[in-house]
Amino acid sequence: MAERKVYFFEEGHFGMKNLLGGKGANLAEMTAAGVPVPPGFTVTTEACMDYFRDGEVFSEELWASIQEALSRLEEKTGQRLGDRVDPLLVSVRSGAVASMPGMMDTILNLGLNDETVEALAAQTGDERFAYDCYRRLIQMFGEVVLGLDSWRFERLLEKLKHNHGCTEDQQLSGAAWQELVQQYKNSVAAAAGRPFPQDVLEQLRLAVEAVFRSWNNQRARIYRGINRISDLQGTAVTIQQMAFGNKGDDCGTGVVFTRNPSTGEPGLYGEFLVNAQGEDVVAGVRTPRPIAELQNIMPEVYDELETWCSKLEMRYGDMQDIEFTVEHNKLFLLQTRGGKRNAQAALRIAVDLVREGRISREEAVRRVELPHLEQLLHRGIDESAGAQPLASGLPASPGAAIGMAVFDADTAESWSREGRPVILIRPETTPDDIHGVLAAEGILTSRGGMTSHAAVVARGMGKPAICGCEALEVDVDARCMSVRGGIGTGVAASLSVGTGAGAGAGAGAGAGAAAASGKGTSTFIREGDWLTLDGSTGRVILGQMPLREPVASEELLKVLRWADEIRRLAVYANADTPEDARTARSLGAQGIGLCRTEHMFFAPERLVVMQQMIAAETELERENALAELLPMQQQDFEGIFEAMDGLPVTIRLLDPPLHEFLPGREELQRKLDATTEKAERLHLQRLLRRSEALRETNPMLGQRGCRLGIMHPEIYRMQAEAVCRAVAACAERGVDVRAEIMIPLVGAAAELGLLRAEVEETARRLLSAEQREARPIRIGTMIEVPRAALTAGQIAVHADFFSFGTNDLTQMTYGYSRDDAEGKFLARYVERKLLPSNPFQVLDTDGVGQLIQMAAENGRAVRPDLKTGICGEHGGDRESIFFCHAIGLDYVSCSPYRIPMARIAAAQAVLEADPLPGRKEAVPV
Ligand code: PEP
Ligand code: MG
Q1: 392, 416, 500, 543: which could form a disulfide with 439 (CB 3.0–4.6 Å)?
Q2: What are the C-alpha distances in Å from 95 to residues 22, 100, 215, 263?
Q3: What b/e string do you get for 590-604 counting C-beta neighbours within 10 Å, with b at 16 or more?
Q4: Is 806 in the pocket of ligand 1 (CB under 6 A)?
Q5: Which residues does substrate bind (predicted)?
Q6: What is residue 432's predicted lDDT score, i.e. its pLDDT?
Q7: Is it the case that residue 494 has pLDDT exceeding 90?
């Protein structure tokens, strides 16, 4: 553990990120690179954790170190905190190791009091500016340190503007701000029971402590939960000389990305505000101007900014998100970090960086964020339906979303919990809205830019979002909004057209056409009205639009090919129909790891026959029904074999308990009561009797899987026969068939021994020795019950492969009913940290994983050529895939649309296990 708790920027570097937080480490790195950064120092994350460990006590030792650093900063700047002539003002900012945008607190202008504000006014000759800074400090201090609500201050400001006949903050005079400062101070004293501190050292100490505490505020904890960030890291605190963007029209502040975060296109992309302070841009209070306009207003500053952007991008080997401030035409960079980007942009940037020789292919694959890939595979609006947008805003986060309008986060959360999809509409979002953002299908705001809170958070979550949609008048209290006719104007419209190019020609044209059709009328949207958002083009559409499935981009295909060169695990699909198989293959499946044959019986015309088979009371009746089912199965198998020509297809024999194919007993009884038709009544009575006979207390532990096949050998025989006939028919047509038959839910080796013999007997009956030699059908089992895992060595004697059915294996290892646990208690368990995550989503490597590892090893010890893989839901989960790679399984099998993610994750597992130099973090190059 480091002894020192405080580091000056010039004493650190990027490699100290764990200690200095992302912001502190980057400021250190920027300082080292010669970037114009206002001087300052960072209090370490360890100091923050010490504070919590000591029961939220701020140690005197730490305070002494901070004061010592402050003296050095005063020496460096030639200013003194609290000085009555030339006061030093500082920002006190949070900075976690992992980026948590807007989740923790920041205080600006610290060091102002009734005396220093006068000094600042005299020094700058601008009383208006000085008192504006002071009122901002009192508000931030009141909110962050003293826990007061923002409305307390906002209300006073609104009243002041009203009284002075102003609509904009900039119109207020110095005297008006002075008046507001007095009101703020009174309000703080009344609400907090203590005055705003005039002692600047007290301000500093309390501010640092409050930033420490903000690590554990509600929104930060929720954000960490979602993003799986450890609670044990703490936040660093950066104390830095203020640079002012609000001293006049030769000042400004902005946020710039070194490449377009929506499309990945090279070139500066961002926003700025003239005469404003940093928080104004990110908070979305005023809608900013596109960065290109800075070139006209402050050409030299723009050129310098562009140069530093390019140097920083070069140094970090990645697209950067940079905050800057201009004080009287002098540029300061306040922060740089890897820029958040959407999936499309991430891929384009990674591929471009490889082409530019900045990073390797492996690094490009490593950087792919799987939730982003999901976004790429997201739907958009089906343009053939002729979308007529109500309004247009900034395309802040791509993908299409359909939901009912709601105007506050709590309603969003409660409606979504009731199963009603919602679109959360706000003037702008704040971090306190996070639960609503989480619950909503999409986000729509009337204010704020591409770097506003709503945009950043939605992009991070891969959720469609439209920001800065100025045509909306949102009335949160009345739960409605009016939409001025036509498309939003100004920055929002110009940016959305500008970025529409990356979202496809059709979409861009849609936005343009709608822009021309604005009629100047208003539309009213009330809570509960349906809306469709197109986060890729920024269009807001009334009603529910038809959606289209996504298309893989060139960049995605390229990165997937690179991933394929790296990965060792094969990726199979869980697919039950020829169509699913074709989709899976087009997405890169190297085989089918699980074909659940029961799904083939659910089509209405087949279900009737299936029910006849189940209800059969004589052998003959059953044989007849099975004979009718056989060609249906055979036809499906042939279709799948054809789609997967040359690749393995693993067909699982019937698994679920038979009652699942019958209507519920109550429904049967209702139907019986409602009919007088004799034959119908007989049929229903028979089904009812059968249903009664099949009734089990614990069906998931009852007569299902291989137990069913043993009790009803004719069912498995029919299925094996259908496979063999399909193999023969396809072979005749020249299809390269690699059929595998999988026996589910085996718990004892003898079960598999028996069923294997029966399948082999069917194969011998239906296929010639030559055919069997040319197209051997492999026979294996699922390992789904703990006993199978424990006796894997015995089971392997009869198995050509093991496929771990991690859904059942998780259910049975934990003893959780998979149909009930998620709805009943699992979410609470995860919330209360009784479990690290939902074990039905992320493999429990400590328990279930150990069974898998042991079974795979014991199985291979008996049969070195035993093929092993998993086919539960975990086959598409990144962490679970990492585990499968680590224990040497041969494949993972997942649903078709997760295949691209699985391919990337399997490659990332190799890269994680075998780190390349400089690969772990975006270490500057
Ligand atoms: C499993 O149990 O993991 C599995 C794939 O089978 P099913 O989900 O069909 O029970
Ligand atoms: Mg199962």
Answers
A1: 416
A2: 6, 8, 9, 28
A3: bbbbbbbbbebbeee
A4: yes
A5: 596, 652, 784, 805-808
A6: 67
A7: no
d(CA 288, CA 306): 19
Q: What is the distance in A from the centroid of ligand 2 to the CA of 692? A: 24
Which letter, b or e, does each residue of 57-77 get, where b requires 16 or more Cβ atoms within 10 Å of its Cβ? ebeeebeebbeebbeebbeeb
Structure token digits, residue 38: 């206002």
For 99, list phi and psi in degrees, rounded to 5: -65, 130
593 lines ligand 1 (CB under 6 A): no
E runs forming strands in 134-286: 235-241, 252-259, 266-274
What φ, ψ does residue 905 adopt, rounded to 5°?
-60, -40
Query: Residue 786 C-alpha to ligand 1 middle, in angstroms?
Result: 14
Mean pLDDT, the chain, rounded, equals 89
Would residue 48 show up in a list of annotated catalytic residues for this protein?
A: no
% of the chain with per-residue pLDDT over 90: 69
Place of tokens 């050095």: 72
Pocket test for ligand 1, best of 597, 783, 784 (most atoms within 8 A of CB): 784
In the structure encoding, which two tokens stand for residue 407, read together? 């105007």
d(CA 266, CA 257): 10
pLDDT, position 512: 28
474 within 8 A of 426, measured Cβ to Cβ = yes
Residue of 133, 706, 724, 871 marked catalytic: 871
In sequence order, the 6+-apart residues with CB closer than 8 A to the CB of 230 are 224
**Closest C-alpha among 520, 534, 441 to residue 486:** 520
- The full set of domains in the chain, from first to last, is 6-242 (3.30.1490.20), 243-341 (3.30.470.20), 379-485+522-548 (3.50.30.10), 567-657+701-913 (3.20.20.60), 664-695 (no CATH)
What pLDDT was estimated at residue 924?
A: 42
Q: Which of 39-43, 367-371, 373-377, 527-531 has the lowest mean pLDDT?
A: 373-377
Q: What are the φ/ψ torsions at residue 462 (nearest 5 degrees)?
A: 70, 35
Which band of pLDDT confidence, cut at 50, 70 and 90, is reported for residue 501?
Answer: very low
Nearest to 238 by CA among 195, 276, 204, 281: 204
| Closest listed ligand to the CA of 574 | 1
In this predicted structure, what is the pLDDT of residue 8? 97
pLDDT of residue 448: 75
Q: Do 272 and 253 form a contact (C-beta atoms < 8 A)?
A: yes
Question: Which tens digits make up the pLDDT trace of 143-178?
Answer: 999 999 999 999 999 999 999 998 888 788 999 999
Cα angle for residues 177, 183, 187 (degrees, 5° grid): 140
Q: What is the pLDDT of residues 834-865, one digit of tens each?
A: 999 889 889 999 999 999 999 999 999 999 99
pTM: 0.70
Segment 508-526, tens digit of pLDDT: 222 222 333 334 568 899 9
Using DSSP, how many helices (H) and how many strands (E) does the chain show?
38, 33
